[in-house]
Amino acid sequence: MAPIRKHGGHRYNLSLAAIAAATQSFEGMNFDAFAVGTLDGAQEFVLEANITTNGVLTGQATNFSSIALQQYSSAGVLKNDIRVAFSAAGVVTVSFAPMNYNVASGATVPGAGTGVLANPTGTVLPWPIATGDTIVLAKIVTGTGLATPELWASFLVGVKS
Questions:
Q1: Following DSSP, what letter does each residue of 19-81 receive, concatenated?
Q2: Closest by Cα among 22, 88, 93, 109 to 53
Q3: Which of these ranges, 35-49, 61-75, 125-139, has the smallest mean pLDDT?
Q4: Element at 12 (helix H, strand E)
Q5: What whole-number distance in Å separates Cα of residue 30 and Cα of residue 72?
Q6: Is residue 12 in a domain?
Q7: Burial, 155: exposed, middle or buried (Cβ in 10 Å; 0-12, 13-18, 19+)?
Q8: Are 102 and 119 in contact, with CB atoms under 8 Å apart?
Q9: Rounded Cα gap, residues 54 and 86, in angstroms
Q10: 31, 32, 12: which is closest to 152 by C-alpha?
Q11: Which of 8, 26, 12, 28 is nearest to 74 (CA)?
Q12: pLDDT (tens digit per residue) in 71-129
């Protein structure tokens, strides 16, 4: 059963400008590591995530890029990593159409052509959030990489039941 959206869920956005081949890029946001007191003790989670490009991104067999959403602890340790590797011609985006990263590891990602979700570290969504965690949108380069159009990630944080 899918998580139920509770009142108070909120969406966050991250973006990366168009990126040349052979260039890795990262954009992140941190959950308040210095919160004083607690208004609500409910555990929050990253419940949903999608990534959109402003141009077509078509994969290639060598020198490809992966588009990742990652979670790091307050100590800088990678906790969770989900990504699509643009490592084949069939892995393709449509301009302004989101890729839905809310699938099981190894499942085809809606909006990414034949691309599948890889989960090299941790678990797939939902991810519990701890104070001080950082969520990162990343372009990961394999070989000399592949130029990418502008990328936007939108993810929903809230309580699940």
A1: B-TT--EEEEEE--TT--S-S--PPPEEEEEEEEESS--B--SSS-EEEEEEEE-TTS-EEEE
A2: 93
A3: 35-49
A4: strand 10-16
A5: 9
A6: no
A7: buried
A8: no
A9: 16
A10: 12
A11: 28
A12: 999 999 999 999 999 999 999 999 999 999 999 999 999 999 999 999 999 999 999 99
Question: 5 lies in a domain?
Answer: no
Q: Considering its fold, how many domains does the chain have in total?
A: 1
The reported pLDDT for the residue numbered 1 is: 46
Beta carbons of 130 and 74 less than 8 angstroms apart = yes
Kindly state the tokens that stand for 148: 């990418």
Which helix (H) or strand (E) segment holds residue 11: the answer is strand 10-16
Above 70 in pLDDT, residue 37?
Answer: no
∠111-112-114 over CA atoms, to 5°? 120
Answer yes or no: are the C-beta atoms of 67 and 117 closer than 8 Å: no
Record the tokens describing residue 99, joined without a space. Answer: 């890729």
Calpha distance 116→86 (Å, rounded):
9
Instruction: Give the predicted TM-score (pTM) of the model.
Output: 0.90
Does 11 fall in a domain?
no
Question: With 60 as the cut, is the pLDDT of residue 3 above it?
Answer: no
Which residue range forms the structural domain that includes residue 148?
19-31+44-158
Give domain status of residue 6, yes or no.
Answer: no
